[in-house]
Task: inverse folding
């Protein structure tokens, strides 16, 4: 098996997550998918090439032109946070959540799944040479949006992104409780500050 360094170079990846996915697409073992470092919000924002608020329009799984199991997720983009994105974006993620026509299912640990109609704030890696990308830090970079009655929309912590969301405590007042839920507007304000700080350096 080729070394990890060769896999990373061959796949043309720049970030830890992209290296994992790109390496898998180039034939690395599935064990690489579990090598995910826990990130805080500044790291997620900094590493993302594109980020936006959006809604899942469609999910399609099949093999790509190279025969690799792939899932294409199309989003309607409501608000661009970082990068250049139009009103719609289609992401190609390695693996499948549902069986392909040949009956095979390849689901990598840590990679998120998507459901049509689901709203989220998502931070995406750069694409590998094979066209794959995924949220930064696997599911750490996907933040579901919840709407309860007439109240404000909120970003809610999941098992995977809890640490990222709780890292916002350092950006808030010292006595603020650990965050497991935050209004969407407050979350986006924090992210905008981080994007601006990064751009000024």
Result:
């Amino acid at each position: 098996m080729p070394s990890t360094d060769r896999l990373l170079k061959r796949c043309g990846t720049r970030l830890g997550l992209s290296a994992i996915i790109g390496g898998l697409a180039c034939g690395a073992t599935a064990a690489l998918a579990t090598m995910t470092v826990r990130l805080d919000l500044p790291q997620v924002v900094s590493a993302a090439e594109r980020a936006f608020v959006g809604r899942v329009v469609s999910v399609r799984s099949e093999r790509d032109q190279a025969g690799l199991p792939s899932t294409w997720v199309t989003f309607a983009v409501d608000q661009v946070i970082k990068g250049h994105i139009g009103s719609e974006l289609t992401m190609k993620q390695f693996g499948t959540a549902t069986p392909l026509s040949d009956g095979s299912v390849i689901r990598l640990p840590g990679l998120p799944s998507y459901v049509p109609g689901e709203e989220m704030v998502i931070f995406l890696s750069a694409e590998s040479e094979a066209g794959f990308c995924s949220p930064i830090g696997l599911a750490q970079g996907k933040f579901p949006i919840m709407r309860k009655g007439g109240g404000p929309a909120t970003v809610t912590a999941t098992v995977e992104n809890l640490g990222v969301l709780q890292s916002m405590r350092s950006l808030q007042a010292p006595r603020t409780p650990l965050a497991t839920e935050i209004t969407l507007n407050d979350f986006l304000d924090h992210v905008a500050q981080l994007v601006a700080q990064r751009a000024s350096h």
